[in-house]
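tool_log.txt
---
The assistant was asked to compare two proteins side by side. It first ran the structure predictor on the initial sequence, then on the second. Raw inputs and outputs are pasted verbatim so the downstream comparison step can read them without reformatting.
(1)
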Amino acid sequence: MSDDEITSEHTCARVGQVLAEIEALRLETGRTRDARVPMQVRDASPREVFYHARTVHRKADQLVVELGGESVAAPDAEIRARARPADVLKVLDSARARLAEARRRLRIEGDTSVPELPGPLIRDAGKTATDVLNGCLLASRQLNTMLAHAFASAEAHELLVRAESLCAGLLAQHGLEMPPTPAFERRKFPREVFEELWQACEMLQQVVHDSKLSALQLDRGFVGELPTDVYDIASLIVSELEYLASFLRQPAIPRAQAAPLPRVLPAHNFQRARRLRVGIALLAGAVRGRPDWLQEAG
């Protein structure tokens, strides 16, 4: 089957296999399932799925490394912001290979559930990119419970630095600059960082919509409490900002390098998240008055 023939129905069937394999590993390792209400999305596209499939791969790879294996990089897309279902499938297949390696290293006696890889490509009829993304979000959360070193604030910090540089590049198209860095506030928790990013994400959805593009929708009712929740919503923001940046004629917005910190605290991420929220608010105001900006810049 050619890459052009692969759809979200195929990747949804594959993420279902990933979830089954994660659940089998969870039972073997005696880890408690994360039973919190998951974040739910609507109107997703393969580009957002691609970013979260890479998160699943990153955690599966970390599990193998913690068991003494070598790290394997996730497959990439030619342009991440324009990733197709075929790109998603390659990442999910590589993640399954990582999970299979974790099972092998655990040396589970009498293990008869080693999957055939990559296995037949089947369709889950009627499924969309939204279903695949929700599956990836669930897989990411369950994998986090099996890691000896679960995702902490440092991982989300990488994404927030990237989001700030992307937002700055998009603001420059309107002759604007990022707001100054707010004062550092101590004693912050991941849930407070998540709330800042939730507001930023809602404004960013409006930016995408006002730019005459399809926008992802997040369903309220989920409260992010852990650093991995912050990572997940930051990844959604980066995927949308990179999508907007992919329409610009100029070269790709360079990746900024943050000053190294001895340890990243939720307070550091809160500071960046607040600055990002204000920056996206500035961008939303500019786009509202200039909805054809991407056509002009492209």
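(2)
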Amino acid sequence: MLHVVSQVHSRCERSTVVNADDHAVAGFFEDLPVLMFVLAGVASLLLSGSWVAGCEQHHRASEELRDIAEDFGGRLLDAVGASDPTSPAPMMASVEDLDVSAVSGALGRTVRASVSIVELYPDVVWVLTWRSEDQGEISSTGSFGALFHARGSDGNTAVMELRVVVWHSL
């Protein structure tokens, strides 16, 4: 069912008075505060976006360095254990004679790194330290650490700690 509604509008006449004075703000100057507000908002979005991109780039570089350190440390542990694969623990002599430069060269890339192996038990002794030749200014680092056992010449087992720190230079 369709209903038709009719309305009657009354006309109200009003007089409008325009004052001629110099106190009104009109035209271009009205838009300046709005423009400043919009520009400030855009600037804050751009600055926060660039900050987040920088943090993401630093995070990726740190992850890459941790992966390199883990790969390098794993290869060092394999090189120590390769001297006598039938033994449950490598000999202390193989740890002391470890050629870190050869393992570093086998990575297939230039690595700026520091390697240390410390005997933690029964005595605290620095067994091996190595540092790459190209030092440079450090910009970001990644690290790897592992504990392993080694047998001494007297047959006793020592607890060893391997530490690998790699870095990017500026």
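---
observation on (2): The longest strand covers residues 138-151. Strands lie at 113-121, 125-131, 138-151, 157-169.
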